[in-house]
Description:
By secondary structure, this protein is of the alpha+beta class. It has 23 helices and 11 strands. It folds into 3 domains: 5-145, Beta-Lactamase, CATH 3.30.450.20; 256-392, GAF domain (Beta-Lactamase), CATH 3.30.450; 422-608, Hypothetical protein af1432 (Orthogonal Bundle).
Amino acid sequence: MDVKISDCFDFDRLNKLLEAFNQATDYVTAIVDLEGNVLSKSGWREICTDFHRAKKCTSKNCKQSDTILSKKMSEGEDYYVYKCLNGLIDVVVPIIIKGEHFANLFTGQFLFEEPSLDFFRKQAEQYDFDQKLYLSAVKKVPVVSEEEVKNIMKLLIDIIEIISELTVEKMEQQKLNNLLEKSYDKLKLREEKLSQQKEELFASNEQLAAYNEEIIAMNEEMEHSLEKVNLLNHRFVNMIELVSNMEDKILLSEKDFFSDLLKYAVEIIPEADYAKALIINAQDKCEFADLLGHDIKILKEMNFDKKLLINLKNKEVSNTEDHLFDLNQIESEKREMLLKALKPIKESLYINININDQIIGRIELDIKKDSSKEFSDISKKILDSFSTLASSFFSFKRFDNLQANFTKELLTSIIKIMEMYDLYTKGHSENVAELAAAVAKEMKLSKQTIRDTYWAGLVHDIGKLLIPIDIINKKGKLTDKEYELIKKHPVWGNKALSSSENLKPIAKYILHHHERWDGRGYPDALKENEIPLISQILGVADAWDAMLSNRAYRKALSYKTALAKIKNNSGSQFSPLVADTLIKIIEGDKIEQLKVDVLNNDINDSKNNNILKS
């Protein structure tokens, strides 16, 4: 009986991995047979599920695109990128097992550049889609770089190769099972002949013994194959766990991520006795991010020039019997310390971690000296997958940091412009941000809430940029009309921030920072805990800093007078809880220390430097 690939291909396991892959990277996937039928899918975009594949005409485009894409593969290609008939980018990876093109793994439903809304408006009219909902779905389609897709496809190809190897192992095991069944059938036939032909007993017994030896040999071979499959399964489960947790690992520092990755590598690659992870800093110095088995206490204090690394430009998984560095180029005292801290090894397996052809680190696994172990080919492929994971992490992390710093600098610049616009509020936004965050910390709110409070405080008056400058800096009493205009600044600030995906989460706090606890505030006359907690905090911090500052219409109040006003208005203008917290901070002389703690540990913390990370 022939063994079919479809009977041995582990769809369930691949589906679980692809679901985890989708959760970690937000890349959608589907397995499609050669006739264009979708066998399974994971995390499809709203634009495909609710529009393109929901209508017969556009669904026909999808199936036609899938069929075209699957036939576009040329010999030697790992994957093919194609723009579907509905306007999205798709990528296909062939699933080839023992030379047979079995099915295709699709990913995609993304764009390489910002979408042409005119194109999709015409498409909405052509296929009678609800234009507003359809364009909303279009805007949710992620825009990614070709470099990112290249890294993601390398990981998907590695996953498919491992699944394919497991399938081949299972097919071989099934062949052995079939052979065993045939042997048992033969044995049964021989036993029947023995009962009928006693005169051939001696000859039949000899033949039976031969069959028994054959069965024992096959059983031993099956046990060996089963052990190998179980080992691969264990590695595969650990790889799934690592990929599934990638989203959480984005919060780690680069050194902590390397340390975490090293522990997984040693667990998944059993030949390794020791391990080293190097990271290259901004000064082109190699530092040990983490070590397993070697003397971490000595090595963590050492660093080396990047140019001393052996095989610096190598991009493949490689074996070596040498140490990490060119020892001849290291001064003798430092060389002796290095050799003392490193355990003797028989062999090392290593790979460089690269971003845009720039090496930023290295993972190296070691087999101890005098060991009989050797690194297998599958272990080399797994280490290569670790390199792809690490490259993806560092690419995303560094882009994320760049984007966060840009947003922070842009906000700071806007605040400086606002201070030039309002002559009497220089430093007011920073003061409110720091004080509000300090109050949030004293209230033992979460780090995320403290960060949201800080950024909301920094931009709480951004709506004032739309108020005429002569009203902002007016020294006399405002007219009713002018005061009504002033009262609109929270609404305008809310609208401005709501247009930004990064700043939208804090827009509602800006909208309500002039509400009052007794319901007599603006713009919505919210009262008590109808007012968001962060808005309650901003209201108290804003009032405190305003009272201590010179304004166009009055001089600054004394510390004592301002504190009395906070106490007198607790429960009317201000939240009692927030007012009591501020009073406690002020009377305990804790305000400056709290500000320093907040800035160092909550706002400028390198692990949490993203603005408004959800």
